[in-house]
Amino acid sequence: MDIQRIIDAITAEMTAAQHRGKAADYIPALARVDPAQFGIAVVMADGRVFTAGDARTCFSIQSISKVFALSMALGKVGADLWTRVGREPSGSAFNSVVQLEHEGGIPRNPFINAGAIVVSDVVLGGGEPRETIGDILRFLRYLADDDEVQIDQEVASSEAETGFRNIALANYMKSFGNMHNVESALKVYFHQCALSMTCLQLAMAGRYLVHDGKHPGTGRQVVTAIRARRINALMLTCGHYDGSGEFAFRVGIPGKSGVGGGIIAIVPGEASIAVWSPGLNDRGNSLLGSLALERLSEATGWSVFNPPGAR
Amino acid sequence: MDIQRIIDAITAEMTAAQHRGKAADYIPALARVDPAQFGIAVVMADGRVFTAGDARTCFSIQSISKVFALSMALGKVGADLWTRVGREPSGSAFNSVVQLEHEGGIPRNPFINAGAIVVSDVVLGGGEPRETIGDILRFLRYLADDDEVQIDQEVASSEAETGFRNIALANYMKSFGNMHNVESALKVYFHQCALSMTCLQLAMAGRYLVHDGKHPGTGRQVVTAIRARRINALMLTCGHYDGSGEFAFRVGIPGKSGVGGGIIAIVPGEASIAVWSPGLNDRGNSLLGSLALERLSEATGWSVFNPPGAR
Amino acid sequence: MDIQRIIDAITAEMTAAQHRGKAADYIPALARVDPAQFGIAVVMADGRVFTAGDARTCFSIQSISKVFALSMALGKVGADLWTRVGREPSGSAFNSVVQLEHEGGIPRNPFINAGAIVVSDVVLGGGEPRETIGDILRFLRYLADDDEVQIDQEVASSEAETGFRNIALANYMKSFGNMHNVESALKVYFHQCALSMTCLQLAMAGRYLVHDGKHPGTGRQVVTAIRARRINALMLTCGHYDGSGEFAFRVGIPGKSGVGGGIIAIVPGEASIAVWSPGLNDRGNSLLGSLALERLSEATGWSVFNPPGAR
Amino acid sequence: MDIQRIIDAITAEMTAAQHRGKAADYIPALARVDPAQFGIAVVMADGRVFTAGDARTCFSIQSISKVFALSMALGKVGADLWTRVGREPSGSAFNSVVQLEHEGGIPRNPFINAGAIVVSDVVLGGGEPRETIGDILRFLRYLADDDEVQIDQEVASSEAETGFRNIALANYMKSFGNMHNVESALKVYFHQCALSMTCLQLAMAGRYLVHDGKHPGTGRQVVTAIRARRINALMLTCGHYDGSGEFAFRVGIPGKSGVGGGIIAIVPGEASIAVWSPGLNDRGNSLLGSLALERLSEATGWSVFNPPGAR
Hints:
CATH class of the largest domain in chain A: Alpha Beta
Number of domains of chain A: 2
Number of strands of chain A: 8
Strand order of the largest sheet of chain A: 2-1-8-7-6
CATH architecture of the largest domain in chain A: 3-Layer(aba) Sandwich
Radius of gyration of chain A: 18 Å
CATH topology of the largest domain in chain A: Beta-lactamase
Oligomer: homotetramer
Helix content of chain A: 40-55%
Shape of chain A: globular
CATH superfamily of the largest domain in chain A: DD-peptidase/beta-lactamase superfamily
Distance between the termini of chain A: 10 Å
Largest interface: C-D, 48 and 49 residues
């Protein structure tokens, strides 16, 4: 299978696409990103790396960071995490608030904002935000094997200044007793969302989820094999907001999107993939990124719903 | 891999289990089923068949029928179906009504009751309920390769007599213009839920979803390969009511449960599985059936989130 | 106070009004009503009658009938009614379904559709729809002192043919055990909504609510004094769908509107008023009817929130 | 009418009552109030004052302050207020969040917490919390004609420390653009809720709503006559959380309750009444306070739904 040829063709199609969606504009740093960009990186299980388009341009990974924060939280408190956050898909933003009220302040899953804020509270433990943010940054550099990974301070500040809905969610959960330190956890949360990475760095960072939880460079388990599998399951059912079912239906690969236009996608035992294009569809997921992954799945047979022989 | 030994061990565990959940009791025919039963059948991709426990006892397949009705509807109207029903997970029964209102009478997916009633309306087309019910019965007999598959008329009648919530949903969707024939569609729906099958018949009936949509006996496509894959995706994200995320997380195999205590589970390219135990957990899925599939996944490595080599 | 002069001036203003709202069009009989019409009738506590505009034209009283049905139900089962229906305002149609689910099938109040359907079920008792409908018609003729009051059979039939949302609500409540006979109760409900009356007849029919529950013609109590007061309280808090607060705020008189464009309004001890103009505002209440009552309140000082001396 | 005899009898009944409800306990200062207390004060339109029981004991007026803050806000921005807050009843706390989401961050009315926080934001204008809090305190002293009215700093601090749900609501509205200064507005809100007053002071403070908006001591308009009437209308439809309909039904007098156990009630042109008993019913309103007002209404004929002659 000639991956390079496949992603070159995809990149050509995406670069020429007319309808590119609309980039997030709730903070200036996201609004001014050039929507014409598209990048893709594929890191194979055997270590080969393929890139095309703007695969080495940094973008704000935003909600994709929730996958890594979840991995850290599981390492810290294990299955106890699931007493504070659920594992069920959540539907629309509208529903997420209704459900939070209906279900006593327990967010539906760790990939909606409310759930990710609880995860931040867990990762923080009783610690200092500054240190926790440093831990997260070091964790990503380790996973990506790249010390250039940075947090975009402008984005972090903007998130904090405009994040009223997240502040509301955190306080709401606190009223149900499901938050320890609202202010510090939000600080961590806003910084993790501001991680700035390239497609290549992101695909590298996702390798442990391809390899049963093992960092292929160091050979150490980042998470246990069973947890790696379960994080992939969560990505499949909950990774794309209210477009998760659609993504599973069309693409069939566990993935997590962010409003910065990035998507990470994991084919267990095969490849870690990152795509990026700033324009979003009406569910808040990268329009061309989703389409590129659908094309990639068609061309390679990569889908967890394909018989292994068909891949 | 010695499947027989594995399922014998599972059956021994399930037969001895103390906590067996509570059987559905909203109609007499379900309430009087002996909760001590447990059955499992595995039909391998290569045609080998393994059974254990009460694998040849008939039970009411209930919502499992939604998988087969969906397959028929896709054959009838193709992708047009998706203008009338969504593909996103739906959360609790509470949410399903809220969402139906919020989303203008379009049910979230074909596996919640509202969605399945729309599917029945589609399968019915402009036809007669009696004929459509006959078509469904013949379809199941063909899939299972067994003319003994029956519809339990007592169950069908009881469903019709007590199904006020389903009647409400159908009329509600009609008020939004998303139903053609409320009465006939409900008749079809109540009868398809009353299909009475054994684990063995059910596992046989699921074979086309293992084989890229192809009936392995006749070699004919029941659905296209892409649709088979997508039905599996829908089962994974939406197949277990508000326990779908949990099932994906723990078991990682596309499946569909019914309140009769049955579950069908599909490992693409590997096996079609049916389990049955009448007691339900708090999400309305077979308690021991879910646990048995978790055990089976652990023992065999069957999970769409496992690297192919790990299976 | 020269009531005739006041209502003549109001009628002149309403007849000349540009913005008249939009008539209900969900059934043909309502859709073809001439929107240019406006009528008002005031029956004073001392028996004097004032009319202006189209006060003697029949219109479909629709939800106004809920006031009379409630009076009948209270006569039949007394305070037991309140175990099956609440007394709290209900917000939007959206909320009424959410609340019905949230509150276990008990409608918020007898003036939303769900509540009125329960009231119909109560008025029906174990009886025949035909007889109950006859009872309701006789009750209205007695209250209005006019044997010309009729039920519009075309409207009743149209309501039944298009009332899917009401059928849904009834079945939904049945699923919670809060309906005895869905079909018969709906038949009664659709017929009571189809009562056809003039402003004059309606204002006459409302007299008992002005006179502490007593029919001023016969001197007999239609409802007890305390119940008359409480029906008025319910009209004030719940009489205008999601515009009830607004109506209380602007007009300050207990009232009940219908989608036919009519409104009945009761000033305890002072007057029974009926207005009618087919065009509705965005909350489903007669646009000019509401405005006319606001003008009447301003001109007469009639408002339950005005000190008695200020009237 | 011998008001003193009536309220003495009521006080005797309430003092002897077995079921007294449960006092609010979310902050220590409320939790430690002796539940055995009951007080009532009636200030007649002609200036006569009647008190009984613990009418001179201070209690936390909590949400009753919303009536006075609304009066200030209307004086400050007039009808523009209604672009930021609605005038419709709101149902349960559950619904208030659902509705806030459904209606784009516009609270249903100024007497639910979200609405009162918007009102605080309006009263604050661009000012300093400290000054605004001073203004509110001076306003209450002026209305009550009593410089002893205080703000309980312990209560204000506790409210701020535990008010996560209110902080959530404020930030939530901010995310919709319906708050200017979250932190300062909340500071004002928490302090106004901490106003500590006696029944006598509270009944005195309510006099302007009896007198068409005019302070009977100074003869100056606190609010215009039409606004006084409308504030009374809002109290009737929205003054008792999800028990507003019930209170209108049973008592029929505009009123506003607080979780401190106090209720203010206004009979236009007749009397300003304050009752207090710490135990709450299941809707969060004073159990004995509500009952006492029902008794008072029965004994005096005071109800806006009674014909004037019947009072």
